[in-house]
Design goal:
By secondary structure, this protein is of the alpha+beta class. The chain has helices at residues 5-14, 54-59, 84-94, 103-110, 114-125, 129-147, 152-158, 164-175, 179-185, 208-217, 268-278, 285-293, 299-304, 316-325, 331-345, 372-375, 379-394, 405-413, 420-429, 442-452, 458-464, 472-502; strands at 24-27, 32-34, 48-51, 63-64, 196-201, 224-226, 232-238, 241-250, 255-261. It has a five-stranded antiparallel β-sheet with strand order 5-9-8-7-6. Strands 3-1-2-4 form a four-stranded mixed β-sheet. The radius of gyration is 23 Å and the shape is globular.
Length: 503
């Protein structure tokens, strides 16, 4: 990554929080690398090196600071937009793509050679894929050691180390001491009665109100709920085990407080990765906002909601079913249909959960045969869901990001009952394609007509959206948010008028 050393040093000297997560500083005299906001005394200019990623700093021989804790910095993924291949590779690594697999296997999944993948990682992250994977494991283990009271053996398993011996050896090599010593040196959180709580950082600003409203409007009964205190709860299933997650916003800490209750410790990193995906914690809102604000149509929307994120999907198959249920019906109607589906086919949540959670979303095998009449949906829609279920069983990676957005969409539209709108919506929320754009969406067309005074057709809107690349998904979210706000104002005005009439 190309970094301006003078600009980086100015940000370091002023502890400018806007640069947190954008670069890391290696101090030659101490062998430690830090975040720009580290409270330690600012080192002399000639004694520092700057790196675009924590993995690059560790690959250069620096160890992470115990004071500023680089694992607590936002994961901005500043290379997005310049290398979608690296973005997809990191998503696969976060899902365990290099746990027990070779780099050439990862490269094959991305449609390129091993040498090319290594070159891209060196260019954009300053480290190899293996070094990036190890740094992620180590920093996650550091977070677990600092923020939880988990036993060391569980920390090793949760962070993806093959054994406690390997876990200990890695920490001794990096920090010169055993993991237990690092825990004793820090502030250990009190043990949770059930589950663990972690802080997942983001780069501010973050429009939590918009995220909460979006999720609340689409919440499926018994599976998810937004409580009166603004906390999001949902049931989760992974690898045959079931549990719950609860998410609260902590604006002061610039993070989300995630409480995870799940019986399988080894699934913890995957669950954290999914929370980050659903709440879009890796977005760089300042860079995205600057790009979208260059368009006069989007400029006022981007200014009004500078921290808007694109909500992701917890599970690709679940999101695909939601998208099918949402075809040509309102958001509320789609949520009701999903609730009926869960009531009929969702497995019970052992012991129940917080906020009235009782079931998990059905697995594909449970939806191979549906009673459309009992569920209150058209038979054609039930057949599409059955087709999705069969396809998901044949190809578990069907709803993940492909080698390109076009490949992802093309793979989906090949399924009966899946059109361009549904495919782009799945790509946007499940595959986390930042440039997905369902141009035929009725709400997008409606709000574009209000903003321009002329109702466009899907082709017109798609042509207008070319200027919004590579962040068309964020442009779509701004338009959806504007449409929701318009309807909320209209409903409020209608209610006020009704009160006046009654008076």
């Amino acid at each position: 990554m190309e970094l301006d050393p003078d600009a980086c040093y100015r940000a370091l000297a002023t502890r400018d929080a806007r640069f947190d997560g954008r670069f890391f500083t290696g101090v030659r005299t101490t062998g430690i690398y830090c975040r720009p906001v580290c409270p330690a005394r600012t080192p002399r200019r000639e004694n520092v090196r700057f790196f675009g990623s924590a993995a690059a700093a560790e690959a250069a021989g620096f160890r992470s600071c115990l004071r500023c804790r680089p694992e607590s910095s936002p994961d901005l993924a500043a290379w997005r937009g310049t290398s979608n291949t690296v973005s997809r590779a990191l998503a696969l690594i976060a899902e365990g793509g290099l746990d027990g697999a070779a780099v050439d296997t990862l490269a094959f999944r991305l449609g390129l050679g091993e040498r090319q993948l290594r070159r891209l990682f060196r260019q954009h992250l300053g480290a190899s894929p293996v070094a990036v994977a190890q740094t992620r494991r180590v920093l996650f283990a550091r977070q677990l050691l600092t923020e939880t009271a988990m036993p060391l053996a569980d920390v090793a398993l949760a962070a993806g180390f093959g054994s406690v011996r390997r876990f200990n050896a890695t920490f001794r090599a990096l920090y010169g001491s055993a993991p237990g010593a690092l825990r004793r040196a820090g502030q250990v959180a009190a043990a949770e009665p059930s589950g663990i709580t972690l802080t997942l950082p983001y780069a501010p600003p973050y429009d939590w109100a918009a995220m909460a409203d979006f999720l609340a409007a689409r919440a499926i009964d018994q599976v998810e709920r937004m409580d009166d205190a603004g906390r999001y709860h949902r049931s989760v299933a992974l690898g045959g085990a079931r549990g719950t997650v609860s998410i609260a916003h902590d604006g002061q800490a610039c993070g989300l407080r995630a409480t995870i209750r799940f019986p399988a410790v080894a699934a913890l990193a995957t669950l954290v990765g999914r929370i980050r995906r659903v709440f879009d914690l890796g977005a760089d809102p300042l860079a995205i906002g600057r790009h979208l604000a260059a368009d006069r149509l989007l400029a006022p929307l981007a200014a009004a909601r500078p921290g808007l994120r694109v909500p992701g999907g917890w599970d690709g198959f679940e999101l695909a079913v939601r998208a099918v249920l949402g075809q040509q019906v309102s958001v509320r109607a789609a949520a009701r249909l999903a609730g009926r589906l869960v009531a009929a086919h969702g497995a019970p949540l052992d012991g129940g959960g917080p906020a009235g959670l009782a079931r998990v979303f059905p697995e594909p095998a449970a939806l191979l045969q549906l009673d459309a009449v009992a569920l209150g949906m058209p038979r054609a829609r039930a057949r599409t869901i059955e087709t999705l279920a069969a396809a998901a069983l044949r190809d578990p990676g069907l709803f993940r990001a492909g080698r390109s957005l076009d490949e992802t969409v093309g793979r989906l539209v090949a399924l009966p009952g899946i059109g361009e709108w549904t495919a782009h919506y799945i790509a946007l929320r499940a595959a986390r394609e930042p440039d997905a754009f369902p141009a035929s969406d009725a709400a997008l067309l409606r709000v574009a007509a209000r903003l321009t005074g002329t109702r466009p057709n899907p082709a017109d809107l798609a042509a207008r959206a070319e200027a919004w690349r590579p962040w068309r998904a964020y442009a779509a979210q701004h338009l959806w948010a504007a449409d929701a706000a318009h309807h909320a104002r209209a409903a409020s005005a209608a209610l006020a008028e009704g009160d006046d009439d009654g008076a």
